[in-house]
Amino acid sequence: MIARIWHGRTDLSQADAYLNLMQTVAIPDYQATPGNQGVYILRRLDGEQAHFLLLTLWESKEAIKAFAGESITKAKYYSFDKQFLLEQEPEVQHYEVFATP
């Protein structure tokens, strides 16, 4: 199993609206991709900003490619991201998973 970790930041005032879009648009897209084995949204409020980590679990690199494209380290963004995110980080992180709940 492979964990894919994406990070993004919004202004604090837009954190709830962004979370709602993640839950209603992005998460169903992840979950509909064959080979996706789980999605977690993490949020940390920090002063006037909100940090989001999206942790997704995948059965293989091929499953990630089906979701993200041939270059699996490239971050995938949605049309609404530009109006919320303070920057669009170009890459994501991948880790092998050795233990699960």
Automatic annotation (TrEMBL):
Keywords: Monooxygenase, Oxidoreductase. GO terms for molecular function: monooxygenase activity. Gene3D superfamilies: 3.30.70.100. InterPro entries: Dimeric_a/b-barrel. This is Antibiotic biosynthesis monooxygenase.
